[in-house]
Specification:
Layout lengths: L17 E12 L2 E12 L3 E5 L6 H9 L6 E6 L2 E2 L10 E5 L10 H11 L4 H14 L15 H13 L5 E5 L7 H18 L2 E6 L2 H7 L2 E6 L2 E6 L1 H6 L4 H6 L4 E10 L3 E6 L4 E5 L11 E6 L5 E3 L9 E11 L3 E8 L4 E7 L11 E5 L6 E4 L3
Length: 377
């Protein structure tokens, strides 16, 4: 089951102007579709992320917007203007690459000023705009340094400044933090978020990092095999995934394969292939036809554990611990249920005594903490 932007705009009703539109866009390589008829709307001032695994078509989509690739079918519009036949250098966008793409023989000042010089901007304006860009990325005083004299994070800031100095309508970010180590990556996520809020510009970012997309984005498009599976706010994507792929790709989840076995006004009953009866709270997208094949998704942090049988009537299963992993801020438990299915449970570290493996235990969750999703074809 796929979804277009028009089917789920996801909480951005306050925006009216569209900066980027893709309408039934296709791109083929060797007669194989890398981008398969996608529809996309990015609103003015949004931080919009395109998320997916390697080879899903997300980078090709960004390159189509940038003009580095040309669409084989469909329409691409930027600020309402058709861009299908407009070359990259004439589009009101600038791209920040994972590799930074700085000129090693030029210092910071000349790297940032390069595009303005090509446009023959007056020297006085170049000076003013480069100073402004350096201030935005907090790189004042680095004008005379060369790329090889700077850290990865500093080079990324220069790459951002070079994109911003041209005052583009849209900033395109192609895995912008992928080359940084974990700590620096976290710091730069805050920098990007603050910069976006300060500038109010439209950012479109491609990433395979789920946490990065969830923490930075106003909305996210999840891609798979050249198609858009779902578009929505981070909370919609995480809490209400519309396909098994989205549920599995965004964060961790426990899946139980089964069929709809009963429906009432509030809940749906699912019988799993291994014999568990799971009750799911009905949502707008919950399938309700008996016999429909579904996957029940339960996030690890939604599962509760108890050494004694809790007083709940549904979704409570006996089992035993098979593994306990301590991660400092949280603890990951692996529980094997009596039917031999294993589930992951994630709980905050409350400084309690951790139970030993092989401890008998009960795992349970509420009806609203699980979803029934139609099995992907």
């Amino acid at each position: 089951m796929t979804q277009t932007a028009s089917q789920n705009q996801g909480g951005m009703a306050g925006y009216e102007s569209l900066d980027v539109e893709l309408r039934q866009v296709f791109k083929f390589f060797n007669q194989e579709p890398a981008v398969h008829g996608i529809d996309l709307e990015v609103k003015q001032g949004e931080f919009f992320s395109i998320l997916g695994p390697s080879g899903c078509g997300k980078t090709t989509t960004l390159r189509l917007i940038a003009g580095f690739e040309m669409a084989d079918a469909g329409k691409i519009l930027i600020q309402g203007q058709p861009m299908n036949n407009v070359p990259a250098y004439r589009r009101p966008v600038n791209t920040v690459f994972q590799s930074y793409a700085l000129f090693n023989h030029l210092n910071v000042w000349d790297n940032i000023a390069f595009g303005l010089k090509l446009k023959k901007v007056h020297r006085k304006e170049i000076n003013s705009r480069v100073e402004e860009a350096l201030k935005l990325v907090r790189m004042e005083g680095f004008q005379k340094r060369f790329p090889y004299q700077m850290s990865g994070g500093q080079q990324q800031r220069v790459a951002l400044a070079r994109a911003l100095v041209n005052h583009p309508a849209v900033v395109l970010l192609d895995e912008p933090l992928g080359a940084l180590d974990l700590k620096l990556r976290k710091e730069m996520q805050f920098e990007l978020s603050n910069l976006h809020r300060e500038l109010g510009m439209t950012f479109i970012m491609v990433t395979h990092d789920q946490e990065e997309a969830l923490s930075l984005s106003d909305r996210i498009a999840v891609m798979n095999k050249g198609r858009i599976e779902q578009i929505g706010t981070p909370s919609q994507i995480y809490e209400k995934p519309r396909t098994a792929f989205v549920a599995d790709f965004i964060g961790d989840t426990n899946f139980f394969a089964g069929e709809i076995a009963g429906v009432d006004g509030k809940n749906v009953k699912v019988m799993t292939k291994s014999g568990l009866a799971i009750v799911v709270n009905r949502q707008e997208e919950t399938p309700t036809v008996n016999g429909t094949s579904v996957n029940v998704s339960v996030r690890p942090e939604k599962v509760q554990l108890s050494l004694y049988k809790p007083s709940v009537q549904t979704n409570c299963f006996e089992g035993w611990l098979v593994n306990v992993m301590y991660f400092g801020t949280h603890v990951n438990y692996v529980v094997e249920l009596k039917n031999r299915e294993r589930i992951n449970v994630l709980q905050p570290n409350t400084m309690g005594i951790l139970p030993d493996p092989d401890t008998q235990i009960y795992a349970w969750w509420t009806e609203k903490d699980c979803l029934a999703i139609i099995t992907d074809n």
